[in-house]
Amino acid sequence: MLTPEDRAAIHGLLADYGHVVDDHDWDRAHEVFAEDFVFDRGATGRPDLHGIADIVANFKGRNMYAHVTTNTTLVENPDGTVTGHSKFLGFPNEGQPVTGDYHDEIVRTPDGWRLRRRRAEIRARKFFD
């Protein structure tokens, strides 16, 4: 059963994702992503990313935006993994804001909770028109 400490650590992990990616703090990527991480971007029309090196290679040098992740729900699965569902707002440095959903598989590692899989689904763009 997830303890209050587990829940707090997982919420911190999900917040850290935005800080690591938005700030290009790649030295901390191992604190967020499991070694076998998959970023499922099929719903966005982009190819999936596999592992920390692929995340860094794909995002490094890109003009990232500020993430706001909210309304997170967590469900513990029988295998000990956790399924997370969050809403996000993304504010690009260029272009329109975007909203969407993150669907996450979160695993406990010897170093703490990590994202093993994330699926991003875009809901809306141009909501400030």
Describe this structure in words.
- With 129 residues, the chain is an alpha+beta fold.
- It has a single domain, classed as Nuclear Transport Factor 2, Chain: A (Roll), CATH 3.10.450.50.
- Helices cover 22% and strands 44% of the residues.
- The protein has helices spanning 4-22, 51-59; strands at residues 33-40, 49-50, 66-76, 82-91, 98-109, 112-125.
- Strands 2-1-6-5-4-3 form a six-stranded mixed beta sheet, covered by helices on one side.
- β5 and β6 (112-125) form a beta hairpin.
- The radius of gyration is 14 Å and the shape is globular.
- The mean pLDDT is 89.
Please work out how many helical segments DSSP would assign. 2
Sheet with most strands: strand arrangement = 2-1-6-5-4-3
How confident is the prediction overall: mean pLDDT? 89
What radius of gyration results from the CA coordinates? 14 Å
Any guess at the CATH architecture?
Answer: Roll
Number of domains: 1
Highest CATH level, the class: Alpha Beta
The outline comes out as globular
Unreliable residue runs: none
Reported for the largest beta sheet, the result is: 6 strands, mixed
Number of strands: 6
The N- to C-terminal Cα distance equals 44 Å
As for the CATH topology, it is Nuclear Transport Factor 2, Chain: A
